[in-house]
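Minutes, methods subgroup
Present: GH (chair), OT, SY

1. OT presented the first of two proteins processed in the latest run. Sequence and structure tokens recorded below as shown on screen.
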Amino acid sequence: MVLPDKRPLILASSSPRRQEILRNLGLDFSVKVSGVDESFSDGLKPAEIVELLAERKVASVSEEVSDGLVIGSDTIVVLNNQILGKPINLEDAFRMLMSLQGSTHSVFSGLTVMDVRTGRKLTGHVETKVTMRGLSESTIKKYIATGEPSDKAGAYAIQGFGAIFIEKIEGDYFSVVGLPIRLLADFLNDFGYPILEIGQRS
């Protein structure tokens, strides 16, 4: 079998969850944090927001490298058309978790992959439905005390202690973690970078 040229992969994110996903696929990659402004205009739909921010991260990092495929992703939690970002303090985390408990919300993850050499890019998103079981105030406070919710959209981590609160999900689990693997695999394959072949060489 003739394997494709192994171009560098650059992840435009400092997220340890996204890095772990790529490592678990056996991929070699470097990390460059974009540091871009993550604000957005009012009136944008959740899918538009995550795609916009993923593209913005990739554009920023692409200016710093001369070759490779840059991967950018952004994730938000949406409940009743309200966007729940990362909590600003403990009280905010408590408010978010109280609103999410006993209900179903959506997690949107946007993804962009760009070939720096050609400027070609692919952008898309995945929506996953997550149902959280009912939680008592004391349980929520104990969870917040672990420190896990502090830097997570929606104030919970599905891959951590937060997993015990999840009743069911409909869609891509990895999208909720922060990086939609199926969509990423499709994009990389389109760029001639099949994960199954490249990962085996790492």
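2. SY then presented the second protein from the same run.
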Amino acid sequence: MNFRQLRVFLTVADLGSFSAAAEHLYLSQSVISRHVSGLEQALGSLLLDRLPRGVESTEAGRVLADYARRLFALEAEAQTALEELRDLRSGRLRIGASMTIGNYLLPRILASYHDRYPYVDIELSIANTDTIQDDLHERRIDVGLTEGFVDDAAFNVRAFTDDELVPVVAANSKLAAIAELTLEDLAAAPCIMREAGSGTRAVIEQAMARYGLNFDYAMSLGSTEAVKQAVIAGAGFTIAPLHTVDNELRAGQLVQLRPTNFVLRRPLHLLQLQNKQPTRASKAFIDLLNEQIASALHGVDTD
């Protein structure tokens, strides 16, 4: 079915004459007549009764006109939806973030994003690095933000910032009283750590391997909050991103250990599928993320 012919037919049917349709569409009456006749021949049905004054739809014409109105209404709706997506007056942003990023870095950024683009639906799933990679592969999310190492040719990976990992322990721990603490002292103490598959744990284990050391894991827990509470309770020490324990350090619930010659920083990664066109919502998010990270590095408050 030729949509141009269909649009001409509907205009004739709605206005009741070839001449009125010709004037409305800025076409000659002969062109209008040719389009309608061509459509009737293609469908094998008479659509309009030609009367001495104007036209009147046949039964087939009324049925087709009803469908045509709905079809062109959907066309207009699709065009409006695309325009709204272009201007971010609608859309959906699906982010997968590892726990440290999702719980401590993203809430402020997502609040700013919502202020700028209030009509975009935001979906944030918090999981470990392995799960986020799986979700990206299966296209369940548009953007991944991870702490762990990512080595997969299917992804476009870049570091968007970094953070510092610091050993912490309860204030009354014997470790806190050691004047010249070494990594060997830590390796001999019970360690509370995130679960296998956690980006934080992977970074720490790789760093310790360079020193030829392994930690004695007393517990492997599924969230940063659980790890912190176990350490505060005196179950052992942990190594955690500094911004995740900042409040507890200020409150005196935890103290930072400073082993000799130990500094551990890690990049935080932004992941997207290779060869996949980013959505307008996800591109706007990445632009805002870069803006806020740059502002934080220069000490500028963007709110």
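Chair's summary of item 2: The first helix runs from residue 3 to 15.
Next meeting: continue with the remaining queue.
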